[in-house]
Design brief:
By secondary structure, the protein is mainly alpha-helical. The protein has 2 helices and no strands.
């Protein structure tokens, strides 16, 4: 199965929220992109 093409996505987010997300990503061994992509997928399933 072919992976979907990745595209650059730019937005703004609260600075403190982003810091917390980055720390959580490091703790989980993920990167922020992976977390955002998963959350978007879950959101679209609703």
């Amino acid at each position: 199965m072919e992976k979907n093409k990745k595209v650059k996505f730019t937005t703004t987010i609260d600075e403190e929220l982003l810091k917390k997300i980055k720390v959580k990503a490091i703790e989980k061994g993920q990167n922020v992109n992976e977390i955002i992509e998963k959350l978007f997928q879950e959101y679209l399933k609703r």
